[in-house]
Structure formats: structure tokens, C-alpha cells
UniProtKB/TrEMBL annotation:
Keywords: Metal-binding
Organism lineage string: Bacteria, Bacillati, Actinomycetota, Actinomycetes, Streptosporangiales
Domain of life: Bacteria
The keyword Nucleotide-binding is assigned to this record: no
Gene3D superfamilies per UniProt: 3.60.21.10
Protein name: Phosphoesterase
Statement: the UniProt record of this protein carries the keyword Membrane: no
Domain Calcineurin-like phosphoesterase: 1-147
InterPro entries: Calcineurin-like_PHP_lpxH, Metallo-depent_PP-like, Phosphodiesterase_MJ0936/Vps29
EC number: 3.1.4.-
SUPFAM superfamilies, sorted: Metallo-dependent phosphatases
Cofactor(s) demanded: a divalent metal cation
Amino acid sequence: MEIVVLSDTHAPRRWRSCPPRVAEHLRGADVILHAGDVCVASVLDELAAYAPVHAVKGNNDGPDVAAPETLELTLDGLRIGMIHDSGPAKGRLPRLRRRFPHADLVVFGHSHIPLDESDGGLRIFNPGSPTDRRRQPHGTLGLLTIEGGVLTRAEIIPVT
């Protein structure tokens, strides 16, 4: 299963429509995960034209964004937790383990800082932002591959 992970697209200020380099990856996706701050629901509709979308609500999302604050789902046997804001960097892994005790992977956003970290029992993954890189060298997205309940690839890809 091929998954594209996005966060912090910040439409319409930063995302007027899907950037071509993002669309290249979306075309091959089985599922899209969005970790919040789409800002307007039309982004989720646009993404759904590529693949099924699972999203959580971000702190900048408007009332038209129908998404939960947190989400737990299983994709191809891998247990995934999603939240927009994971809190401060210090203590993040144990805090997310407490919040999602059964997850193999937790996807989050908010900081716009790409991160792929593991403590052996839990992997946490922030794809960064494809459209609002802030102090990062590139806008980014995440690519995940799951095979039989195992995360075989987790990659952060520059798209700007």
C-alpha cells in the first residue's frame, strides 16, 4: 500500500490548487493522510480525486473542515494514530505513546518541520509542509509503503 502524507497545506493562502510536484506523488497513492491545517474543506475534496483521504483537524482549519481532532486507523495491518499538534519536541515520543498506546506509527504536523523518528516501539512522522516551508530548505511531503502490516518505507520528499 502506497500512502502520501501531507500536512499544513494552508489553503488558499499557500495552496491555491495542488502543486504539480505534489500531484506527481498523489497519482500513485492508494491512500492520502493529511495531518491538519488544510484550512478549507475544498482541499480535502481536491485530494479525494486522487485517492481516499483520512484527515485530522488542525488549529487553522475552518468550521467547514469535517475532520476529528485525532484519528486511529489500521491500513494494511499497520496501526496508525493521527493528530495535528504533537506538543513540544521534548518528551514527544513518550507523550505520543501514551496518547496512542496501540499505534505502530503516529502521523502529525503543525510545526512544518519534517521528522521521522523511532524509539523501537513507535515511529513518529511529520511530513512537513509542501507549501509553507517556513525556515526549512524545502517544502516537503511524506511517502509511506506498508506491506502486510509492516512499514517498509518512510521517506520525506522535497517538492519545492
